[in-house]
């Protein structure tokens, strides 16, 4: 389970690693991540450290089904095709 192409580090507590697994991992990888990190910490890292790597469909699946986050989030911070805030 190595989805971080830019580092050999496998620190499962980093936001980059978590987002890589959520976006590109298999369901087995995501289950293992949830077991390793814990649901609450995983949700906190996802919400507090957004990454612009998700399609709209994938973000909806990860947010609502995998993580069970029903609160509103700023989707522009997650969607890879949303314009970047440059100001």
List the helices and strands and how they pair.
Layout lengths: L14 H10 L2 H11 L1 H10 L7 H11 L21
Describe this structure in words.
The protein is mainly α. It has one domain (15-77). It is built from 4 helices and no strands. The chain has helices at residues 15-24, 27-37, 39-48, 56-66. α2 (27-37) packs across α3. The protein is globular and about 35 Å long. The model has no long low-confidence stretch (mean pLDDT 87).
Summary of the model, kept short:
This protein is mostly helical and 87 residues long. It has one domain (15-77). The chain has 4 helices and no strands.
Please supply descriptive tags for the structure shown above.
87 residues, mainly alpha, 48% helix
Number of domains: 1
Query: How would a textbook summarize the main sheet?
Result: none
Written as H for each helix and E for each strand, in order along the chain, the element string is: HHHH
Structural class: mainly alpha
- Enumerate the spans where pLDDT stays under 50 for 5 or more consecutive residues: none
Radius of gyration: 13 Å
Shape: globular
Number of helices: 4
- Calculate the mean pLDDT score and round it: 87
The count of DSSP E runs of length 2 or more, i.e. the number of strands, is 0
């Amino acid at each position: 389970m190595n989805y971080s192409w830019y580092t050999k580090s496998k620190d499962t507590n980093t936001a980059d690693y978590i987002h890589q697994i959520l976006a590109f991992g298999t369901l087995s990888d995501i289950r293992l991540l949830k077991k390793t990190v814990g649901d609450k910490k995983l949700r906190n890292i996802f919400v507090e450290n957004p990454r612009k790597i998700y399609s709209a469909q994938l973000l909806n699946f990860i947010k609502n089904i995998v993580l069970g986050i029903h609160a509103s989030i700023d989707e522009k911070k997650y969607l890879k095709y949303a314009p970047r805030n440059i100001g």
